[in-house]
Design brief:
two-stranded antiparallel ribbon, mainly alpha
């Protein structure tokens, strides 16, 4: 079923897969993080950066830097939980997508005619277009940005 859809509509299928996966990841992230605390931490970090630029005393700068590191550590800890929870399911989804797009014998989903010699040498697979994975990355970045704005995720 999926293979036939992918084979007949590779661009639409990767757009749909990218949207659904991005939506799921965004909702999981929002549910598993304290958005209020993340916003506070980011605002505190901005304030500390401003203080750091204005500060002349090295000792006070070190204190500010230490405080910034503590805020960064707390921020990273709070965002790590959804990452760990979604890692294995996302890995399984990528395996499924790879098998599906390989079985459907889909080549480049997005084609471009720009040929950059250095790029073609270093990454020959992206010289003439984007396969399923690069297409997924491009669309999921777009959808993630939009969904994070829609759901007001920090």
């Amino acid at each position: 079923m999926f293979e036939e859809f992918v084979k007949n509509q590779p661009l639409i299928s990767i757009i749909l897969f990218s949207f659904v996966i991005s939506l799921a990841l965004t909702l999981i992230y929002k549910m598993l993080t304290n958005q209020k605390r993340i916003k506070e931490l980011k605002e505190e970090q901005k304030e500390l950066q401003i203080k750091m630029k204005e500060e002349k005393d090295k000792e006070k700068m070190l204190e500010i830097q230490k405080s910034m590191l503590e805020k960064s550590a707390e921020l990273m800890k709070s965002t790590m939980k959804p990452t760990l929870i979604t890692f294995i399911p996302l890995l399984l989804i990528f395996i499924f997508l790879k098998q599906t797009y390989t079985a459907a014998e889909v080549g480049n989903i997005i084609s471009w005619s720009i040929k950059v010699p250095v790029l073609c040498t270093v990454l020959p697979g992206v010289c003439d277009g984007a396969g399923w994975f690069l297409s997924y990355v491009i669309f999921s970045l777009i959808f993630s940005i939009l969904l994070r704005k829609i759901f007001k995720i920090h």
